[in-house]
Amino acid sequence: MNITEIKQAILRGGFSNEDLDGLMQFTRGVQTQQTKAQIEVGQQVYVVQKTKRTLGEVVKVNVKKAIVNLPQGRYNVPLSMIEVA
User: Fold this and answer.
1) What's the pTM?
2) Class level of CATH domain 3-84
3) Per-domain residue ranges for the chain?
């Protein structure tokens, strides 16, 4: 099954808002796990926001967040907002 088929199945599925919310939480959790497995201290990453991507360096990786040095300072960023550069 590819991503297009998954999207179509969700559209046709007739899911409730609670079901869709649970699906979003699940996918966010998977995204966090994958990001945590990919990043290390000292690595260059992008912090992804709705309208921009900012390059920074990982200082520390915590359970759900990472401390990232950005041009504006150090920030505690959720792993779901991080992409490997």
Assistant:
1) 0.75
2) mainly beta
3) 3-84
